[in-house]
Write a structure and sequence with these properties.
Layout lengths: L7 H14 L12 E7 L4 E8 L5 E7 L5 E6 L6 E4 L10 E6 L5 E8 L6 E7 L5 E3 L9 E7 L5 E6 L8 E5 L5 E4 L4 E5 L5 E6 L4 E6 L5 E4 L3 E5 L5 E6 L5 E7 L3 E4 L10 E7 L5 E6 L5 E9 L2 E6 L15 E6 L5 E7 L3 E9 L3
Antiparallel strand pairs: 1-28, 2-3, 3-4, 4-5, 6-7, 7-8, 8-9, 10-11, 11-12, 12-13, 14-15, 15-16, 16-17, 18-19, 19-20, 20-21, 22-23, 23-24, 24-25, 26-27, 27-28
């Protein structure tokens, strides 16, 4: 299907209409209540979470206590400890991140192969459910570095190739479940893949800025999100829309509903918000933050067709999500379990999984 020559006017019109309908919301006192189901902190490591699957397995990165080492990790309730990826599987200089994990526990990310020199080299890697680490095959190209950024439940991963790791990507790539790798005829900044094989990403140039979804049949849709943090199997992109250069609104886009702006908290009027995840019940999680690094973990849910907002930071006893002034909800499962990355003054960086309290 031929793509439109320029989506700019249509995107701006949609964004303006959505902004006119957006209004701050009082945090709901009658919304879902949550308890701490799992808590992860390790005196030897300073963990940061990136993703969680439907089995509450969490992946991310962790600094050593002296910040000299970065490792990737996978954590699961069954094991109760960090499974670490300390270096690139075929040898390297450390600094590993795991950024996505599918339902089976297959995690993907990247690690440093060569940290020397100006350019450096990083390569995509995977951690299988059994704990085996492996390098993902690098395509036959002169481009040196690769990052895997997402993986679906079929074991298909997508990622980006880089001339230099600190510059924008130059090529989109897909690693198939059969072990093959292919270059994609897509903009290079691909970000998410769902279980239908649809791929979402961004175009961000001096002339154009838009998000896109490329369906498995080749149909492409463009829309006004500033990021795509998640892509559901129902085809909803989750992220934020920009009201101006600094003001973010948590937002959704789908072909069926168009652009939906989620309300911001009335009790936090100067906070920008963005959404990170959404489940099949259309419960959305994310964060609202101000300019001085205070942030609140947020849940949005629909009541009688209207979005209501729950400040999760007030839902957990003992101030666990408010002690350090920083909390971000990153993912919500279909069972309603919520991954929160937070900071506890007495414990340091802490990963929390919340579960709804049954009425």
């Amino acid at each position: 299907m031929p793509m439109p020559a320029s989506p700019a006017l249509a995107l701006l019109t949609a964004l303006a209409a959505a902004l006119l309908g957006a209004a701050p919301a009082q945090a709901a006192d009658t919304g879902p209540r949550y308890r701490v189901l799992h808590q992860l902190n390790d005196p030897a490591w300073l963990p940061s979470a990136h993703a969680m699957n439907e089995r509450d397995q969490v992946v991310g990165m962790a600094y050593s206590a002296d910040y000299s080492t970065i490792v990737g990790y996978r954590w699961s309730p069954a094991r109760g400890r960090l499974e670490q990826v300390t270096d690139f599987p075929s040898g390297g200089d450390g600094d590993v991140q795991l950024v996505a994990v599918n339902r089976q526990g297959l995690a993907v990310g990247h690690g440093t192969v060569d940290a020397g020199g100006r350019r450096g080299v990083e390569r995509a890697l995977a951690m299988r459910p059994n704990g085996r680490r492996m390098a993902l095959p690098h395509p036959g190209t002169a481009v040196q570095s690769s990052h895997a950024v997402a993986v679906n439940d079929a074991g298909v991963a997508i990622g980006q190739l880089f001339d230099e790791v600190y510059l924008p990507p130059v090529q989109a790539v897909r690693w198939n479940a059969d072990g093959s790798v292919e270059l994609l005829d897509l903009p290079p900044e691909v970000l998410r893949i769902n279980n239908h094989g649809d791929i979402a990403g961004l175009v961000n140039t001096l002339k154009e800025h838009y998000a896109f979804i490329q369906q498995a049949d080749g149909t492409q849709h463009r829309f006004a999100l500033g990021d795509v943090a998640a892509l559901t199997d129902e085809g909803t992109a989750v992220g934020f829309a920009m009201a101006n250069a600094r003001d973010k609104h948590a937002a959704l886009w789908s072909l069926a509903r168009g652009l939906e702006l989620l309300p911001r908290p009335a009790h936090l009027p100067n906070f920008s918000c963005w959404a990170n995840g959404m489940n099949r019940e259309r419960q959305v999680v994310g964060v609202c933050a101000d300019d001085v690094k205070e942030s609140r973990a947020i849940l949005w849910h629909e009541v009688n067709g209207q979005w209501e907002l729950v400040d999760l930071s007030t839902q957990v006893r003992g101030g666990l999500l408010t002690q350090g002034g920083r909390a971000e909800a990153l993912h919500i499962t279909d069972a309603g379990h919520i991954l929160v990355d937070t900071h506890v003054r007495t414990q340091g960086p802490t990963i929390v999984v919340l579960a709804p309290v049954q009425p």
